[in-house]
Amino acid sequence: MEQLKFIHNTIIHWIDKTDSKANIILALKLFILGYFLKEFHIQDVEKFKQFILFIFFFSSALSFFFVLKIVYPKLSTGEASSLLYFKHISDKYKFNKKQGAADYKNLTPDKLELDTINQIISLSIVATEKYRDLQKSIILLFVEVISLTILFL
User: Whole-angstrom Cα distance, residue 129 to residue 112?
Assistant: First the structure.
């Protein structure tokens, strides 16, 4: 069981790091967007720069989508009720704390181990999705920076 706790905590750590990186990217994106809106004047922009503007805004919107998807993930996995997943615990015992206490008191080591394994699998899926979205957001951030560099040349 100690190994399962270690794996579970490691995955939680990965998710926390991904969320932290997404928050940094969000701050960078807001800084870039603020700088762009302050400094760039859209008057008589040639066709090539209009295309670059489109790329900038499209990549910015798409990147915002991925960052917000990381920071505000969906809370439902569609899996059976778990005694370890906070949303399931809240949904099941919010109005019946005595039942929750009784269920946890009667929890067997085998049931706890199985629930921990299922939670590890679910968290691994969440961590992988978040990390993929973070990678996409980083790539799009580079596209934005390159677009801005071209626009201000």
Answer: 26
Let me know how long the chain is.
153
Dihedral of alpha carbons 100, 94, 80, 74, sign: negative
DSSP character at residue 44: S
How far is 63 from 49, CA to CA, in rounded Å?
Answer: 20
Three-state DSSP at 27 gives: helix
Kindly indicate the confidence band of residue 107, based on its pLDDT and cuts at 50, 70 and 90: confident
Helix (H) / strand (E) containing 77: none
Alpha-carbon span 18 to 12, nearest angstrom: 10
3-state SS, residue 153 = coil
Structure token pair of residue 54: 């489109």
Report pLDDT digits (tens) over 32-45: 888 887 877 777 67
Residue 65 near residue 129 (C-beta atoms within 8 A): no
Place of tokens 């994106």: 29
- pTM for the model stands at 0.78
Helix-strand-coil percent breakdown of the chain, rounded to 5?
A: 80, 0, 20
What is the Cα–Cα distance from 75 to 77, expressed in whole angstroms? 7
